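Listing S7. Sequence submitted for prediction.
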Amino acid sequence: MSANTQQPQKEYVVGIVGASGAVGEELLLVLEQRNFPIKKLVPLASQRSIGKNVEFRGKHYPILETTKQVFQQEGIEIAFFSAGSSVSQEYALDAVNSGSLVIDNTSFFRMQKDIPLVVPEVNPSDITKDSTIIANPNCSTIQMVHVLAPLHKEFEIERVDVSTYQAVSGAGKRGMEELVVQMQKFFAFELDSIESKVFQHKIALNLIPHIDVFLENNYTKEEMKMVNESQKIMHANFQLSATCVRVPILRSHSESITIRFKKEVSANKAREILANAQSIIVLDSPQENRYPMPLIATNTDETFVGRIREDNFDKRILHVFCVADQVRVGAATNAVRIAEKWISLFDQNKI
């Protein structure tokens, strides 16, 4: 064998916990589109999904029940968890003990001190050789730090105020189904039969400034996730306040962000910085009606940023608007990028 002959790329036994859910389905799609090196796919879910199949690369794979033994039995090397915090709490350590790298898309591990919370474009160095569990941040946090991190390096952030406009798919398949059913009943003039089971109020033709539960400080858990997770990911302690709103859109979260820096900021310079940042597309031609919108971002892997403008009264303040597909950028794609980064850093046969 000559010195220039490349070794074959290592392939992995990959498990997906929650394979029948919205994020699990998107993980399968992203893994296929990114040609992730998979030797064997092991879709996992609860007992009620037994008998169902998932399709991957033209083949059908039966869903297996998530048990404490299945990770070792199937030889799973990389396990993506996307089935809820209680499932991660119950099974993630069993996966680790069987030798799996766990990439967890739930909130269970995110703020635990020794667990890295990673957005690969922002803090890849938090992934270490000894990492056994890597947490995937909240969807609304991921797209925001995509924007904040490159600007923070240049201008140094003092404070962020963000309002989110979050799609119903953030509540999973049931959230999408509830919006569709309510809209159907609205146009059929069946208003009296509209029920709200997933959301606190009717979501069709409405906005609900309430995502997750309210805490003692009158912020919701979703809002405090954005505060705490952003500071952990960016290793920063700037002030941040969030107002999170559910909107009647099927897919892709939007965010209006006001950023105050320690030094004066130029909108043109900010555009240049963001245009050169990873996983960001600047769409900022308001005179031509070009700016980020959910319909543009859906089914993409980038965070779209526009409406970049300086404040009218304070030269240290910048206002921006960003949109990203939260099922992909905010969940599945970020999780797969974490796995790709881990492989590129620490595997002997790198991608």
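Caption to Listing S7: primary sequence and predicted structure tokens for the chain studied. The mean pLDDT is 95. The first helix runs from residue 22 to 33.
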